Amino acid sequence: MSTSRSDRWTALNTSRAVRDAADRLRQLSATASERDARRHWLVLLDLRDGERAVDIGAGIGDMTVDIARHVGPDGAVHALDLSPGLLHHTRQRAAEAGVLDRVATDTGDANALPYGDDAFDVALCRWVLLHLPAPQRAIAEMRRVVRPGGRVLCVEADWETLIVHPGDPDVTRRIAHANVERQVDGRIGRKLAPLLQSAGFSNVSVTPLVDLDRSGDWLPFLHTRLDVAAQAGVPLSTLHQWWKAIESAASHGEYLFSFTQYGVLGIVPPVSQPARAESPT
Ligand SMILES: C[S@@+](CC[C@H](N)C(=O)[O-])C[C@H]1O[C@@H](n2cnc3c(N)ncnc32)[C@H](O)[C@@H]1O
Fold first, then answer.
1. Shortest CA distance to 226 belongs to which of 178, 278, 275?
2. Domain containing 28: what range?
3. Ligand 1 centroid to residue 94 C-alpha, Å
């Protein structure tokens, strides 16, 4: 993987790009499988009243608002993102949910967090590390800002796990491959546990979660992958035919889409230890 790559999620420079990104996140967050997934991640986070949390790369604040509800009025959650425009949506959502009193928004970079050591009890980073050329830097930063004994949860898809039925399997493979290659690291899901381990976390656990769609919730997302595949050189006529098969199956309840994401939880060791040195052999 190149370390100089970036993608559109790290360059939301125009109001149009921010609006489109916010719409995409809202659409994903409204799917039944993502509503379920959020509940699972909250169970893993095991938040308590009065805790201080940080949501790294918070986007429109989907998880920020959930976290704010769980830490209660005596707790606090900081939503950090590169994009001030997306953080504006976070504040709006927090206000609508009645939790703005405990939500702060900070424009900043996951690679260099603007917080002191041990500032938080818990950190979450969902769907961000796949966009970063050096995810280990952001993971080390989360370890630094979370107190000893605190929790860090990273959640990422592994896009190689994407399957779609029906449609010509060869075309599906080409679309899925284009989607993997479109990300800075579309295979980050499988790498999270080793990354947290080598960053010195203890009790690293992996929870796989399958997003499964048979109702058509994920069709808008899937449709956006056609452009990605076209840019990767798959002929438009091939894509058009493939999509017709999907649409027809979906209208008869015969379509299936799924992929796996991984929630990897690590504990900051109670007595701070240096990250494990690589063995020379
Ligand atoms: C796919 S969105 C995920 C948003 C949110 N975590 C969620 O789960 O809904 C990726 C987010 O990461 C943010 N981002 C990308 N690179 C970043 C960086 N270096 N530091 C902070 N945020 C970053 C983007 O602005 C965007 O909000």
1. 178
2. 8-158+187-211+261-267
3. 17
